[in-house]
Write a structure and sequence with these properties.
This is FGGY-family carbohydrate kinase. This protein is an alpha/beta fold. It is 39% helix and 17% strand.
């Protein structure tokens, strides 16, 4: 047992980060050196209620208490002590969605998560009015759709927030939101670091005929930047989080953030000209910009870092699911032959063999669309492998085509940033399942984006560690460093991970592949349109 760590916990110097993800609530406890010392988790699932994806209020609090209890059990097991107080707490959660409350603090309709796509009419109308891309999952889209639907609860809204904002409010009594999470509620003006006054005014005019008693800024959380105090844990908040009653009130909280922001922090990608790519079941890239884009693009969402820099986000619904399905097929074949299966070996062998294929995959293309893909304007998906009789159909090209497919849509979105908007990037960090087989996914992504890609060991710690670091930034920053400098100097201390530069032959091959891929999209559209069976 580490007695130093035990005394850090007992003297209240540890920092707690909690992130509510879509399938897991995770808690990470870090020491003053920003290293994880304990963790806890709780598995949960969203429910489809009346056609909308939700998590109940009970599920939120039961999950948080269980996650915190799991963390406390880990502390007890490792260090034989209990948590009574902390240096800071940070809460983050999946962004966007809709949590609306009346003046009695009662939720008016079940929490509508980012996953709901019933907001198409509202998002299109707002995008046109604001001359700004407003995605379906943003909170403002949910609010306007509820207004267009004539939902009776809207007149009673006293407060509208995200999941992280709600949990933070209940713990601290403060109606605030970190700027990164707030940028997924309503566009942020980079000059004022607040909601766009122009868009607030436009929205209020659009809904004025309805005669609501509220104006938009009356019901939205106050926007805070990383490092600003966002309140203190109240006695009621302490009871809600810690079922044992040991946790004391008075602990400072950092601004609540969204999972995109905490991912940027956990990969040291908040500085301008840096970015990160998360590649697992779905994928997204976040590139921190030096200036605004010249115009809005339907496939690029504009959000911010936790300290308010503009970020261009390309979000793709599909990444590794179809690739994993093909790898499982080879696993079944191995079992059929009676050969023992080690999945790490199967992935390793197939992924590395893909690198021996032709740079353009010998003409093969793959569409990995298990679900619809907004970037390529497909409401539904049909996984397809497409080849002509003259293509070089072998295992290396087949695996390479499927690996290319996992980041092809990401490339289409990022090509706009790099080729049309001439965005410059010094470092992109990759994290997620695609990078588990050393060097392969990294090399493929470097070719797709024509940019060096770094992978760090710590990226696996995830968003709960990211929000704990924002808690540390609040209380362990006597020199008042910027967030980017704090991460560089105090957290990562020169560790930029292992970098792979793009191979020119790979880049040319991926460019050839993507042209064939885009030309073949009508095949995918036809497959969606003419489905053979239900």
């Amino acid at each position: 047992m580490n007695t130093d760590t035990k005394s850090i916990i007992e003297s209240g110097k540890a920092i707690l980060g909690i992130e509510l993800g879509s399938t897991r609530i995770k808690a990470v406890l870090i020491d003053p050196e920003n290293k994880p010392i304990a963790q806890g988790s709780h598995v949960w699932e969203n429910q489809l209620v009346d056609g909308l994806w939700t998590y109940s209020i009970d599920a939120i609090w039961n999950g948080l208490r269980d996650c915190y209890a799991d963390l406390c059990a880990d502390v007890k097991k490792q260090y034989d002590t209990d948590i009574e107080t902390l240096a800071a707490i940070g809460v983050s959660a999946m962004m966007h969605g809709y949590m609306a409350f009346n003046d009695k603090e009662e939720i008016l309709v079940p929490f509508r998560t980012w996953r709901n796509t019933n907001t198409g009419i509202a998002a299109a109308a707002l995008s046109e009015a604001f001359v700004y891309n407003i995605p379906l999952r943003w909170s403002i889209s949910h609010l306007y759709q509820a207004i267009l639907n004539g939902e009776s609860h809207v007149k009673d809204i006293a407060y509208l927030t995200t999941l992280a904002g709600y949990v933070h409010w209940q713990l601290s009594g403060k109606k605030v939101l970190g700027i990164g999470d707030a940028s997924g509620v309503l566009p942020i003006d980079p000059a004022t670091k607040n909601y766009s006054a122009e868009m607030v005014e436009k929205f209020d005019k659009m809904v004025a005929p309805k005669g609501f008693s509220w104006k938009l800024t009356d019901i939205l959380p106050k926007v805070l930047q990383a490092g600003e105090n966002a309140g203190f844990l109240t006695p009621e908040g302490a009871k809600k989080l810690d079922g044992s009653g040991r946790l004391k009130a008075g602990i400072p909280l950092c601004p609540p953030e969204g999972d995109a922001g905490t991912g940027m922090v956990a990969t040291n990608a908040v500085k301008q000209r840096t970015g990160n790519v998360s590649a697992g079941t779905s994928s997204f890239s976040m590139i921190v910009l030096e200036k605004d884009l010249s115009k809005p693009y339907e496939m690029i969402d504009m959000v911010t870092t936790p300290d308010g820099s503009l970020v261009a986000m390309v979000h793709c619904n599909n990444c590794t699911s179809d690739l994993n399905a093909w790898v499982n097929l080879f696993k079944e074949y191995q079992e059929l032959l009676g050969v023992p299966v080690d999945m790490n070996e199967v992935f390793g062998k197939l992924y590395n063999h893909a690198l021996e294929g032709d740079a353009d995959c010998g003409g093969l293309i793959s569409y990995n669309y298990i679900s619809g893909e907004p970037v390529t304007r497909l409401a539904e998906g049909r996984p397809l492998v497409v080849r002509s009789a003259n293509d070089k159909f072998n295992l290396a090209n087949f695996m390479r085509a499927n690996l290319y497919a996992s980041v092809a849509v990401l490339k289409i979105g990022n090509d706009i940033l790099f080729n049309e908007e001439k965005i410059k990037v010094d470092r992109i960090t990759g994290h997620g399942g695609l990078f588990k087989t050393k060097g392969v996914g990294q090399r493929i992504l470097a070719a797709a984006l024509n940019s060096p890609i770094s992978v760090m060991e710590t990226a696996g710690e995830g968003g709960a560690w990211g929000i704990a670091l924002l808690g540390s930034y609040l209380v362990n920053n006597p020199q008042k460093l910027s967030l980017a400098d704090f991460l560089d100097e105090q957290v990562f201390a020169g560790n930029t991970g292992v970098e792979i530069k793009p191979d020119l032959k790979d880049v040319a091959g991926f460019n050839a592949y993507i042209e064939t891929y885009k030309a073949g999209l009508p095949i995918e559209e036809a497959a969606v349109k003419y489905k053979v069976s239900e």
